[in-house]
Write a structure and sequence with these properties.
The protein is α+β, with helices and mostly antiparallel strands. It is globular.
C-alpha cells in the first residue's frame, strides 16, 4: 500500500486509543474535537510527537500536546491555536536545524480552539530559551527563566518553559528534570526535599505533601521532571508537579507494568490518596504498536510504525493539597528507513 497521509495516521491512532469503550470513560465527550484540533499540526511536517492528556479522576476530558521536530522554513499551521506564532515558527525552523536537541510545541485545549499554551524545550541551552522568548514577544519571560535557572539546586536543571497565551496574567510555567541520583537522595531523605524547596523559595508545602512527593519519587522507575509557576515579579506560585515518566515500551512490557510493575504501584498510590480512580486500568488497553509495510513514492519498500504508549503520569499539588492526576500517552507515526526495519 502507499504511504497514508499524516492526517489519516493521526485519525486512525485516535480511534485506536478510544476503541473498546475507552473513549467515553477516559476522554469524555470532546475526544473527536481534540483529534480534529491536532490535524492541522501534522500535515506538511514530519509527524510530531502527539500526547493525549486526560485526568484519572473527576470529569473526563481530553487535551493534547503537539511537539514538533524539524520543520521546513516558512511552516504555517491553519489553526486558531497557532495564531500569532509566525515569528516563533520562523525562529524555530532555523534554530532546530542547528540544534537537534530542542523542540517547540502547542498545548491544545479540546474545548477551546483559540490560542492555547506553547512551550519550548531547550534543556540546558538557556541562551536559546532567551531567544525563544524574544521571538514570542516575551523577553521578560526569558529573563525570569534564566534567573531561576541560576538558583536551581544541584541535580535540578531546568529544561523547558511554557506560556499560557490564552490566559491573561498567567504565570510562566518552568520545568526541569531531577537526575537519577538526586531523585534517589530526595526519596530517601524528606528533609533534603524540604531543603530544595527552601532554596527555591517555594513555600506552599506541608508534611503530608512531602510524604506523598517522596513516595512518588521512590516509586518512579526513571528520572522525573518537575514544574513550577513563576510570576512576573519572580514570585513562585503555589503549585508544584512531578511527572513520573516511563520509557516508551513494547506493548507487552507496558501491559505487564500496568498489571504488576511500576505503573501499577504508582497508580495504586494515587488511587489510595484519592487523586485517581480505577479508570487508569483501562489505559493499559491503549498500548498499541504496529509495523505496516508500505511503498514510498520511489517504489521502495518501507515500514510505517504506528505507536500508542503511556509515557508518564502527573502528580500535582496546589497549596500542599494533592490534585487529580493525569496520564499522558504518546501517539506517533513514523516512516522507518529500510535499515531500521530489522
Amino acid at each position: 500500500m502507499k504511504i497514508p497521509s499524516n492526517s489519516l495516521c493521526c485519525r486512525t491512532l485516535f480511534l485506536q486509543a478510544a476503541d473498546e469503550g475507552r473513549g467515553p470513560v477516559l476522554f469524555g465527550e470532546n475526544w473527536e474535537r481534540s483529534r480534529e484540533a491536532v490535524i492541522p499540526f501534522v500535515e506538511g511536517v514530519p509527524f510530531p510527537d502527539v500526547y493525549l492528556e486526560f485526568p484519572l479522576a473527576g470529569e473526563p476530558f481530553l487535551d493534547t500536546t503537539v511537539l514538533l521536530k524539524k520543520i521546513p522554513a516558512g511552516t504555517r499551521f491553519s489553526s486558531p491555536a497557532a495564531a500569532g506564532t509566525e515569528a516563533i515558527l520562523d525562529w524555530y525552523a532555523k534554530a532546530r536545524a542547528e540544534n537537534d536537541g530542542i523542540s517547540f510545541g502547542y498545548e491544545l485545549d479540546g474545548d477551546n480552539p483559540g490560542p492555547g499554551a506553547i512551550h519550548f524545550q531547550s534543556y540546558s541551552q538557556y541562551r536559546l530559551a532567551g531567544e525563544f522568548c524574544e521571538a514570542a514577544g516575551e523577553p521578560e519571560a526569558g529573563r525570569l527563566y534564566q534567573d531561576l535557572a541560576g538558583r536551581m539546586p544541584e541535580g535540578w536543571p531546568l529544561a523547558f518553559l511554557g506560556m499560557f497565551r490564552g490566559r491573561p496574567g498567567s504565570p510562566l510555567r518552568v520545568c526541569g528534570y531531577v537526575d537519577g541520583d538526586e531523585k534517589k537522595r530526595c526519596a530517601e531523605d524528606p528533609s533534603r526535599m524540604e531543603a530544595v524547596f527552601r532554596q527555591l523559595g517555594f513555600t506552599a508545602y506541608d508534611a503530608p505533601m512531602i510524604r506523598q512527593l517522596t513516595a512518588v519519587l521512590a516509586a518512579a522507575p526513571e528520572a522525573v521532571d518537575f514544574q513550577l509557576d513563576v510570576y512576573p515579579d519572580g514570585r513562585l506560585g503555589d503549585t508544584f508537579s512531578v511527572d513520573a515518566g516511563f520509557r516508551t515500551m513494547r506493548q507487552q512490557d507496558a501491559l505487564d507494568s500496568f498489571d504488576s510493575g511500576a505503573y501499577a504501584k504508582i497508580m495504586g498510590m494515587l488511587e489510595e490518596w484519592g487523586a485517581a480512580d480505577s479508570r487508569w486500568k483501562l489505559a493499559a488497553g491503549m498500548c498499541f504498536s504496529r509495523g505496516i509495510p508500505v511503498v514510498d513514492e520511489e517504489g521502495a519498500d518501507r515500514l510505517l510504525a504506528l505507536v500508542i504508549s503511556p509515557n508518564w503520569t502527573k502528580a500535582r499539588w496546589r497549596g500542599g493539597a494533592l490534585q487529580p492526576s493525569k496520564l499522558y500517552c504518546l501517539v506517533h507515526a513514523e516512516l522507518l528507513d529500510p535499515e531500521k526495519k530489522k
